[in-house]
Amino acid sequence: MRNCVMGSIAALATVLVFPAVPFAQAAQQPGTNKADAQSKAFDAHDFAGIWNPAPRMQPKGEVNPLDLGGHPNPLPPFAPAGQAKYENNKKFIDAGAVLDCDPYGTARNFFTPRPFENIHARDRVLQHFEYYDNWREIWTDGRNFPDDLEPDYMGYSIGKWEGDTFVVDSRGYNGKQFLTWQGFPLSESMHQTERWQRVDHDTLKIVFTFEDPKMYSKPWTITYFYKLMSNWVLDAHPCTLAAIKEYDERINHADNLPGRDYKPEKYHGRSIYRAVAPI
C-alpha cells in the first residue's frame, strides 16, 4: 500500500472553496440530468467506477464530518476518554499542518472531498482513494476475521450482500488516525459498519455506523452520498519526503505556522501541542 501526506486543515479549506473539477461539474448539472440518472438502468450490485463525495446531500441534524468552523454541532456521543482525546486532537490540529505519511484510515478517506475508485475483483472489492493515494481491500469470499488480526490504519474489512445492500464490517484499527477532519478519535476497539446502496445510476449512499465503547458512549451514524464520475481518472498523490518538506516551507512558514520540528510551547498567545513528523 502506498502511503500518504497528511495535509493541513488550511489545505482542506482550499479544496472546499476551490473544489475538484468533478465536484464542480456534479454541482452544476441541470435538473434534467437528475431525472436522466434516475431513469438509467443500473446493476444494484455494481459499485465499479469513480465516485465523488456529495456532502450537500447529507441529512440535516447528523454529525457533519466536514464542519471545520472550530465548533462542530452536533458532536458525537463522546465517552469521557473520547472527549479528552478529541480535545487533545483539536490542539494538535490547531498547531497547523499535520505532516506525516500515515494513511488516513477508512472513515476519513470517505469524508475527504476527493474521489475514490471501486474496483471489483473475484474475491474482494478494491478501493483506491485519491487523497492521498490510499488503498483498501474489502474481502467478499466469505471469510471471517483472522484470529491473529494485526491492528492497522485501514483496518480489516469483510463485505457481504443483504438483498441489494452491501454490508461492510471493519475491525482491526490501530487507533492512530482520526475518524474525521475535526479530530474525532477512535481506538483499537472501533467497529465500523457501512451499508452501501446504489440509489440510482449516478448515486451511491453509504450509512456509516461507528461503535467504539472506549471513545463513544453509544453507536452513532453518518449518512453520506457519492456521485458517479464517468470518464474520470484519479489524480493520485503519493507521499514523499520532498513533498513534506516543500509543504512545510511553502505553507506553514508562509502562514506563520509551526514547522516540522516544532515543540510544545506558547504560540500566538495560546498553548498548543505539536508532534514531530517521522522521517
Give an overview in words.
The chain is of the alpha+beta class. It has a single domain, classed as Lipocalin, CATH 2.40.128. It contains 6 helices and 11 strands. It has helices spanning 9-17, 21-27, 31-39, 80-94, 106-110, 241-252, and strands spanning 49-53, 116-120, 124-129, 134-139, 156-162, 165-171, 191-200, 203-211, 220-228, 265-267, 270-272. The protein has a 9-stranded mixed beta barrel with strand order 1-2-3-4-5-6-7-8-9.
Total of helices = 6
Tell me which CATH architecture applies here: Beta Barrel
Helix-strand pattern, N to C?
Answer: HHHEHHEEEEEEEEHEE
Strand order of the largest sheet: 1-2-3-4-5-6-7-8-9
Number of domains: 1
| CATH topology (fold) name | Lipocalin
CATH top-level class? Mainly Beta
Which percent band covers the strand fraction? 25-35%
Morphology: globular
User: What summary fits the major beta sheet?
Assistant: 9 strands, mixed, barrel
**Rounded Rg:** 19 Å
CATH superfamily: Calycin beta-barrel core domain
List low-confidence stretches.
1-31, 259-279
Structural classification: alpha+beta
- What is the distance, rounded to the nearest whole angstrom, between the alpha carbons of the first and last residues? 18 Å
Mean pLDDT: 80
Number of separate strands = 11
Write a short abstract of this structure.
With 279 residues, the chain is α+β, with helices and mostly antiparallel strands. Helix content is 20%, strand content 25%.
Features:
globular, disordered C terminus, two-stranded antiparallel ribbon, alpha+beta, 11 strands, Lipocalin, 279 residues
